[in-house]
Amino acid sequence: MAGVGPMTQDWEPVVIRKRAPNSAAKRDEKTVNAARRSGAEIESVRKFNAATNKAASSSTSLNTKRLDDDTENLAHERVPTELKKAIMQARGEKKLTQSQLAQLINEKPQVIQEYESGKAIPNQQILSKLERALGAKLRGKK
Fold first, then answer.
1. With bands split at pLDDT 50, 70 and 90, how would you rate the model's confidence at 49?
2. Is the pLDDT of residue 142 over 80?
3. Does the pLDDT value for residue 112 go beyond 80?
């Protein structure tokens, strides 16, 4: 408001205060130790079942016995021996190294190595890429 009247300076002090500590801040170690030093009364209460996960583990479910009795050995399907040999043979006929074949199908050389060693879990997308790159049918030989 320039030009309306004389401006005056406000010389009253402005006081900025912190908020009162919340309940979490009242319980921190520093505050509790200060209260102990001053001789204030301190009450500590442990909540029932605190710091335990008994609610999840103590109740036995109906499937517990069935799971204990289950002797089935579960494992992922691995690359069959016929497929390993077919990949190695087709790659040899094309005179490709594992890394060259991997580059052709946009996969890591480790993937080809796993397929040829039989450690890989068969993936239909990778098998179709291999079939296209090698020009050989790898699946469905019946």
1. low
2. no
3. yes
The amino acid at 24: A
- CA-CA distance, 136 to 40, in Å (whole number)? 85
Higher pLDDT residue, 63 or 83? 83
88 token code pair: 């190695």
Phi, psi of 16 (to 5 degrees): -110, 125
Q: What is the mean pLDDT of residues 28-57?
A: 74
Check: CB of residue 84 under 8 Å from CB of residue 122: no
Euclidean distance between the first and the last CA atom of the chain, given in angstroms as a whole number:
94
Rounded Cα distance, 44 and 50, in Å: 13
- Cα separation, 106 vs 51, whole angstroms: 49
* 8 Å CB contact between 108 and 114: no
DSSP state of 2: T
| Amino acid of residue 141 | K
